[in-house]
Write a structure and sequence with these properties.
alpha+beta, five-stranded mixed sheet, two-stranded antiparallel sheet, 11 strands
Length: 207
């Protein structure tokens, strides 16, 4: 497909306009979405380790069976971009329907970036198109992930970037990561970057 350069992004000749939005209600509710509960981000919930392929045992078809008594960390403190007050994400971007858990302002390498984690193996094309359009419109780079599998088990992630060429190169250099080290929501912060990943970033800078 032919591409045109707009600012520091390369985009398709037919630009996406779907990233225009009407503000969401003041506060959306988690349920019936259970994307973060189903292991697509790493967490320790009480005595259970939740990760890709290993959902929380309290996650049911239409929500959490202990929702009213769910732990404060991480279940109450983790808030994805679809749930934040006045979220710019449209209704269809609910994680279990769009195939992505999104954060709009993640500190990374001294900047703020968007980050998107797949609900499943990878983010669906129409969702990724919307995220890239939003990144262009707001001049905020995007980091997104694809999951790696071996013999039916999720084994890690491939990190990809959308933004200026230098940003994409830096993201590509960081390569593959263990999924538990990156997609961790148990630290009590609204972030998917674990301390081990931050240390890896510093190690990469010194090479």
């Amino acid at each position: 497909m032919e591409c045109a350069r707009v600012g520091w992004y390369e985009i398709g000749a037919k630009d996406m306009t779907s990233a225009s939005w009407t503000p969401a209600p003041p506060q959306r509710q988690c349920q019936p979405c259970t994307a973060c509960c189903d292991g697509w981000v790493y967490a320790q919930i009480n005595e259970f380790i939740v990760k890709a392929g290993h959902p929380c045992p309290h996650s049911k078809n239409h929500g959490c069976d202990i929702y009213a008594q769910r732990p404060k960390v991480p279940c109450q403190t983790f808030v994805c971009a679809w749930r934040v007050e006045r979220s710019p994400l449209p209704d269809w971007m609910r994680p279990d329907e769009s195939g992505a858990i999104v954060l709009l302002s993640v500190p990374w390498e001294g900047d703020l970036v968007m980050s998107a984690v797949p609900v499943g193996a990878e983010i669906p094309p129409h969702t990724l198109d919307w995220l890239m359009a939003y990144a262009r419109n707001h001049q905020r780079p995007l980091i997104y992930f694809q999951r790696l599998m071996d013999k039916g088990e999720f084994t890690g992630l491939k990190r990809l970037g959308y933004g200026p060429p230098a940003f994409r190169k830096k993201v590509e250099k960081m390569g593959l990561k263990d999924q538990d080290a990156i997609l961790n929501m148990s630290g009590g912060k609204t972030t998917i970057w674990a301390a081990s990943d931050e240390l890896q970033n510093k190690s990469d800078e010194n090479r």
